[in-house]
Amino acid sequence: MILRPTAVLLFTISIALGSAPRAGASVLDLPPATPAADRLAQATDMPAPAAQPSMHEPRAYDGPGPAGAALRSLILPGWGQLATGHYTQAAIYGGIEVATWTSYITFQRQGNLRRDSYFQTAQLYAGIDLEQQDENYRKLVGQYRSSDVYNQYVVMREAAYFYTDPADQEAYIASRSIPAENAWNWNDDRAAFDRYGEERRSSEQAFKNGQYALGVAVINRVVSAIAAARQAKSRKEKAEFGDAVPGRPQASLAWSLAPGESLVPDARVSCIVRF
Predict the structure, then answer these.
(1) Is the pLDDT of residue 236 over 70?
(2) For residue 133, is it within any domain?
(3) What pLDDT, on a 0 to 100 scale, did the predictor assign at position 9?
(4) 223 and 128 in a common domain
(5) Count of domains observed in the chain
(6) In what helix (H) or strand (E) does residue 260 lie, and over which residues does it extend?
(7) CA 93 to CA 69: how far, in whole Å?
(8) Element of type H or E holding 37
(9) Element of type H or E holding 268
């Protein structure tokens, strides 16, 4: 028996779809197609497909609230992030905290060593012990070659400028002059005089850098506390409302696919909106 080309094509498709009743059957033996209206009625009578689980289902949150998370980060930066489950940020804030305190200790150590260095330079080359002197006196030692130069060109000129009465001038000079027990003199050693100034400035800069490190530590605490409070608030809202917190509706899709009547698949898509 010779089949027409159309029949051969339909027979091949029926085999591929697993719908042929038996080998060698004619295409004329296939059941008639179900009308479109009947297929629509069957589709509407079928139960709706179950919604697929969403990745953003509300989960229980047993961490601290915004105030508790902020307080933790104020005490130790990164602690609030660790309590709210943000481990990467906790490591960053904690690392900054360790780095700032390490820098502070290093700068303090450098400042002390350089201060001891210029103390020693003043004692060896200017003949003055600066251990018990205040900061203003140490500055004068680095500005004037000797205490006599300071007394003559600063104190005596100020007395002559501010007072006309000789008695008042003498009283001013006596109260402002460097006494003999605290006198210094660099003589003609210009190199030692310059080295003293460089060592002193280097010591001051090291102590100043330590203060900057403390400022960074304070800023790190404040930023960590603010971030931890916001993260704790967000986690708490998600635990109560899911991803759809008030004012921010969230949408998700669910779909299902099942074989239908007469080789027509039944596909359904659902859109779920949370307010």
Answers:
(1) yes
(2) yes
(3) 37
(4) yes
(5) 3
(6) none
(7) 14
(8) helix 36-45
(9) strand 266-274
Whole-model pTM over 0.70: no
Contacts of 28 (CB under 8 A, 6+ apart): none
Pairing of strands 250-258, 266-274: antiparallel
Q: At what angle do helices 190-241 and 135-143 cross, to 10 degrees?
A: 140
* Residue closest to 275 by CA, chosen among 253, 254, 246: 246
Rg (CA), the chain: 44
**C-alpha separations of 233 from 59, 61, 153, 239 in Å:** 14, 11, 67, 10
Residue 144 burial by Cβ neighbours in a 10 Å radius (0-12, 13-18, 19+): buried
C-alpha–C-alpha distance, residues 220 and 32, integer Å: 77
Lowest-confidence region among 69-78, 148-157, 214-223, 254-263:
254-263
Residues near 165 by Cβ (< 8 Å), separated by ≥ 6? none
**Do 132 and 196 belong together in one domain?**
yes
pLDDT tens for 112-168 read 999 999 999 999 999 999 998 999 999 999 999 999 999 998 999 999 999 989 899
The residue range of the domain holding 13 is 1-31
Up-side HSE of residue 189: CA atoms within 13 Å toward CB?
17
Place of tokens 């002059």: 177
Going from the C-alpha of 108 to that of each of 48, 210, 221, the distances in angstroms are 72, 6, 21
For the chain, how are helix, strand and coil distributed in percent, rounded to 5?
A: 65, 5, 30
Per-residue model confidence (pLDDT) at position 149: 93
- Any bridge partners for residue 274, and if so which? 250
Terminal C-alpha separation, the chain: 67
The single-letter code of the amino acid at 231 is Q
